[in-house]
Write a structure and sequence with these properties.
The complex is a heterodimer. By secondary structure, chain A is an alpha+beta fold. Chain A has 6 helices and 16 strands. In chain A, 13% of the residues lie in helices and 30% in strands. In chain A, the strands form 3 sheets. Chain A has a 7-stranded mixed sheet with strand order 5-3-2-1-4-6-7. Chain A starts with a helix and ends in a 14-residue tail after the last strand. The N terminus of chain A is likely disordered. Chain B is built from 1 helix and 8 strands, in the order H-E-E-E-E-E-E-E-E. Chain B has an 8-stranded antiparallel beta barrel. In chain B, a hairpin with a 6-residue loop joins strand 1 and strand 2. The longest helix of chain B is centred in the N-terminal third of the chain and has 20 residues. Chain B is elongated and about 55 Å long. The two termini of chain B are 30 Å apart. The chains are: A alpha+beta, B mainly beta. At the A-B interface, strand 1 and helix 5 of A face helix 1 of B.
């Protein structure tokens, strides 16, 4: 085997490994093909510094013709955390881009590497610090659980402080005890593990496998900025926040990314209401949620979800019969233990339970928006 | 002329915006499907098929309203797609087959039977298609043709 071939194979393998560990907030291999890479040299025509993803538009000359390529990069949030901004590139800058080509054959490429030709400086890459910002931090200093005057744990910050819950220890839902590895987006490392994830009905299993084998390319969260309803709210890289409104017996849950949607959990004892197909009191993507306390654990009973979203990373199907019992326990200042029991006789053969931990991030919710602005 | 163009623009805009808003990510066959069936491309009949899934079975109605006929049996069979040719490639689209059987009375009280065998297209997208063969017997007359319906 020639050195060139070996080099190519090693390079391809490295690219695959890199792609699997990329910090992208969604699974880019559904759109871009790790097995097809290309290097482009051309001139910047525009830097589109916008959510959900930054894009460079560049003219690439190929013989007599010039093609305008779209180079897709990480979110504004990740790039700003890495020290870049909308002035990092200007129209007329000559750059070299290397990355994965779009699977659909269009002139789109994922910008694994962007290098300024005149200085050979790499730009618009995500720094290690920015990458680490969304991952759990080890050995945080211990503090007691903050409490309300009535003795119940606070799910939000103590007075005068700020913070939100993020950095989930697990970003895909699977039945407790399942020995299954996924990437940050819920994509199985081994497709043969499909049956270990949950007790699927046949149609749900086959649909889940199809979504997995398609690298989650049809995920409505990323295609149309659909809300991360149900369990998925607690798997998001940009976190979520509890705002406890004791006076009115309700808790707001606010999403850190996406479209910053919020919904209520009522704690005033009112009965479950609403209709599956929606009414003024039915948030649809988050179900009708009722909360109560059992000791230091906040228990949320939610039902009447619609079917317009994926309720977990990785594409687990659900039906309108989905009924969730979620248990939130702030085990110390920095840790929120999340446990969920899934009861959906429309998609699963029995009830099942999963869970993970969230970590306290003593900052404001990130400023990131995903909105479907296409005409 | 301007008003007509504006109306057309508004209609198209609504359709484009509505497409993702009407996504159905649960059971792939569930929902209201609208289209046509007919023995030839020029002889086409309006067709509305409403399918629901209760967790065990599909049920529903063909042409709800005055001409409604209940579905006797509907079934979804998913045949997995071909494995990817090499790691990193997309898997072949699985085949989502739907069979619908109707055995009832038409609007005139005549016995009617329908057997439809269809295959879904672009199952992963909110607006998917179901197309295949349609065989209908009513009033002693059997007609065969093709149907093509789209999830609303």
């Amino acid at each position: 085997m020639s050195r060139k071939v070996v080099g190519g194979l090693v390079g391809g393998l490295l690219l695959l490994v890199m792609a699997a560990n990329m910090p992208a907030h969604h699974n880019i291999t559904g759109k871009f093909d790790p097995a097809r890479t290309r290097t482009l040299r051309g001139v910047v025509t525009k830097l589109d510094w916008a959510n959900p993803h930054v894009h460079i538009l560049m003219d690439v000359a190929d013989g007599k013709s010039v093609t305008n390529w779209a180079v897709e990069l990480e979110s504004t949030l990740d790039l700003e955390k890495s020290g870049w901004n909308l002035n990092t590139l200007k129209p007329g800058d000559e750059i070299t881009v290397q990355g994965m080509l779009a699977r659909n054959g269009s002139s789109q490429i994922w910008g694994d590497s962007v290098v300024l030709a005149n200085s050979n400086k790499r730009v618009l890459n995500v720094s290690d610090a920015a990458r680490a910002a969304w991952l759990p931090v080890a050995n945080l200093p211990s503090r007691p659980v903050p409490r309300w005057p009535d003795g119940k744990p606070r799910l939000g910050p103590p007075p005068g402080e700020k913070g939100y819950w993020g950095r989930p220890s697990l970003t895909s839902l699977m039945e407790n005890g399942a020995n299954v590895q996924t990437n940050a987006h819920g994509l199985l490392r081994n497709i043969a593990d499909v049956d270990k994830v949950a007790p699927f009905q046949r149609w749900a299993r086959d649909l889940y496998e199809y979504r997995q084998r398609s690298f989650l390319k049809d995920d409505p969260l990323f295609l149309y900025c659909k809300p991360p309803g149900a369990v998925r709210l607690f798997q998001q890289p940009y976190g979520m926040q509890f705002l406890e409104d004791k006076n009115f017996g309700r808790v707001f849950l606010v999403e850190g990314g996406g479209s910053h949607l919020w919904h209520f959990i009522y704690t005033d004892g009112r009965p479950q209401t609403g209709e599956v197909r929606g009414n003024a009191d039915n948030p649809l993507y988050y179900g009708n949620a009722r909360g109560s306390w059992e000791g230091d654990t906040f228990i949320v009973d939610s039902k009447m979800f619609n079917e317009k979203f994926w309720f977990s990373n990785g594409g687990l199907p659900h039906t309108e019969q989905l009924h969730l019992i979620e248990r939130f326990t702030r085990t110390d200042f920095n840790t929120l233990k999340y446990e969920v029991t899934v009861d959906d006789p429309g998609a699963y053969t029995r009830q099942w339970t999963g869970g993970w931990n969230l970590q306290w991030v003593p900052e404001d919710l990130p400023t990131y928006y995903c909105q479907d602005n296409r005409p | 002329m301007f008003g007509r163009s504006l109306r057309l623009f508004c209609l198209l805009s609504c359709l484009l915006v509505a497409a993702p808003a009407l996504a159905q990510e649960g059971h792939p066959a569930k929902g209201t499907w609208v289209g046509y069936w007919g023995p030839t491309t020029t002889q086409q009949n309006r067709l509305v098929v409403v399918l629901d899934y209760d967790g065990k079975n599909l049920s529903g109605t063909v042409n709800p309203g005055p001409n409604a006929v209940p579905i006797k049996m509907a079934r979804l069979d998913i045949v997995p797609g071909t494995p990817p040719p090499k790691p990193g490639d997309l898997v072949g689209e699985p085949t989502f087959k739907v069979r619908i059987e109707v055995d009832g009375k038409d609007v005139k009280g005549n016995p009617i039977t329908i057997v439809a065998d269809g295959t879904m297209e672009q199952v992963g997208l909110p607006i998917r298609m179901l197309a295949g063969t349609w065989t209908q017997t009513s009033g002693g007359k059997t007609e065969k043709g093709q149907f093509r319906i789209r999830l609303q």
